[in-house]
Amino acid sequence: MTSKKRMAPPGAYNKEPAMTQPSFQDYYPDALAHCYGCGRLNEHGHQIKSYWDGDESVCHFLPKPYHIAIPGYVYGGLLASLIDCHGTGTAAAAMYKSIKEQDPNAEPNTRTLTASLHVDYLKPTPLGVELEVRGKVKENKGRKVVIEEWILADGIVTVRGEVVAVQVPESLVEELLKRR
Amino acid sequence: MTSKKRMAPPGAYNKEPAMTQPSFQDYYPDALAHCYGCGRLNEHGHQIKSYWDGDESVCHFLPKPYHIAIPGYVYGGLLASLIDCHGTGTAAAAMYKSIKEQDPNAEPNTRTLTASLHVDYLKPTPLGVELEVRGKVKENKGRKVVIEEWILADGIVTVRGEVVAVQVPESLVEELLKRR
Question: Which of A40, B87, B147, B169 sees the fewest Cβ atoms within 10 Å?
Answer without folding.
Answer: B169
